[in-house]
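Structural prep section.
Before we set up the soaks we want a predicted structure of the protein with ADP-ribosyl-L-arginine in place, mainly to decide which crystallisation condition to try first. Input record follows.
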Amino acid sequence: MRDLYKGTLKSKFLGCLIGTAIGDALGARWEGKGMARSEDIVYLAVKLKRLIYTDDTHMTIGVAESLIESQGFDGEHLAQTFIKNYEAEPWRGYGPGPPRIFRMIKNGEAWYSAANKLYRGGSFGNGSAMRVAPVGLLFSRNLEKLREIAYQSSSITHSHKLGKEGAALQACAVALAINTPSDKDIDKEDFLYKLQNFVQDHLYKEKVAQIKELIGEQDKAKVVAVLGNGIEAPRSVPTAIYCFLRQTQSYEDTVIYAISLGGDTDTIAAMAGAISGAYLGIETIPSEWRAKLENREYIEALAENLWRLVVCPRQQ
Ligand code: F2R
Ligand code: MG
Ligand code: MG
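Run finished without errors. Recording the tokens verbatim:
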């Protein structure tokens, strides 16, 4: 049935959200560990009976639910959706910051100010970039609007400029992938040129330039040393984009390579998987992986509803 969608925008929306969840679920087995061999990742992917996702997908679901229910961005609604979902499943492996923010909001702090009270200048963790794919899908035709909504959605939990900019960069990469037909080769130079022009912070501009220099690099230690594999947005969002650009024609290779770098593997594989799935479409994600993903039908329904919001906004 899925082949009916092949090459369509709907297939790309489905590929993006399912691509996120599978990257997250496979990567979760290596999170916080060192580099892994590709053979071991493939072996585990075969052995696992269920692919269980973590906070990355759980919060992506929250963003998608809220965008759909509100027919666009509503900060209060999104914050309450995060809180509701967290309280239902607090065991999904959330980062340290978000549960503290949720408590502040429940105690009366406004959704747009609570995050300023966390860390120095707000969080620059990758928690707002890992969940931003639905923003990239919904606003792919208007990158200035995409930037504004990525910043606002980030500011609920991650108000540091590097947190917000990381979310905007990841959303932009998803949008560029959506906007490139899957039967047309990605022009890597052009893709990076567009990201370089889009991103405003000089640290990310530098990182995007480094991605270009590292394409084709065989030494994974060098990739990690330059781009990072950490929990901070500037040390993981550019890495995820790199993982995608290394092997644009294979979702499977993208995710396996992302996990093989070690570190924050669920998150880097989730973000790389989102971009790859958005470019290649749902059919290119191995069917045996899709079949094992928990909650797959619900995530697919969210992707379809986001797609509907884009193609026929008034019918929602
Ligand atoms: N929490 C995890 N992994 C831990 C292991 C989970 C385990 N497997 C389990 O099952 O329980 N992963 C998830 O958290 C990451 C996203 O984190 P988020 O939402 O960004 O959290 P936070 O607290 O905002 O930031 C993370 C850390 O970054 C440092 N940091 C951020 N801003 C800072 C600042 N202004 N100054 C100094 N440090 C700052 C802090 O160390 C934060 O704790 C994802 O990996 C997700 O998968
Ligand atoms: Mg996680
Ligand atoms: Mg993680």
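Observations: The longest helix spans residues 9-27.
Flagged for discussion at group meeting.
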